[in-house]
Amino acid sequence: MERVIDMSYAVLMSPVSALRSVANEEPVGPGLGILFLVSLTGATATNVAIPGVPMQMGFGAGVLTRGIGTFILALLIIGAIHLVSTMFGGAGSFMSLLSSICFAQFPGLLNGPATLLRAIPPLAPVATVLSLGIGIWTLVLTILAVRESRGISTGHSILTGVFAVVGISIFAGILAAFAILSAAF
To answer: How many domains does the chain have?
Structure first.
């Protein structure tokens, strides 16, 4: 556990060398744990702080369902990033990429408390700025994680992320169209 805390701290303080180290060591279990905690923290804060979030299943079930959904979506995006990065000459294992991207999400743990600040009206603008900053920080770390774990340039890392998200969005749109069409007939 102490090693995971040290690695997480290193990702925040010296991200390039830390993410390179994570890519080499491939601590998949702890990485998935971080990703799942980030997913649950965000789901909890969203259910508490944002008015109008559906709560038909109750608070606990809603948080768990949203957290698991976010976790699964993140894994799908990481899989797509792995496939797309291969087009740009990326090398390295999927486990290396998975570990690196999961550790890059560590600052996302701060997004939960930032989101909770939205429930206090005078602090809502501060919460928005904090959330935006944390999001940008996490995005930069994710780009670095792809670069370090797949051995591609920063530009190719950015394009990999864009193509992966666009590809998943198109795939989801096609699935939604089929679902709508099948329900109509």
So the answer is: 1
